[in-house]
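Handout, section B. The chain below has 116 residues.
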Amino acid sequence: MSVFDQSNQQVCSQYNAAGNINFGSAQSQVDVISEMQKIQDEVRKAVQSGALDEEIAIDVESNLKKATIQAQKPEPDKKTIQEYLDRAKKLLAGIASAAGLVTALSEAAKAVGMLF
């Protein structure tokens, strides 16, 4: 995931979900679940920073939680997990301040496709 230096730009309420979310290093379903939980944390941080509307965040978190619950089942349904992640991503589509979260959700869907 990329981190951009925007110090010389005027950016209003931009939130970059970066840092410790890394689906590229996921080697197992447990790793993917852990990374999805990190996205939930980033959604909460985006709300706290004012970059994301709380009502939208509730819906995004709900879909992430459902994806996580499905992923933790003894026989998780890959398609269902990806649908929840896609719904979360669509809720954030078009919100410039949530671009980092959209990228993280796309990475999550790819990881689910490979490891589930």
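Note. Residues 71 and 99 are 24 Å apart (CA to CA). Compare this with the example in section A.
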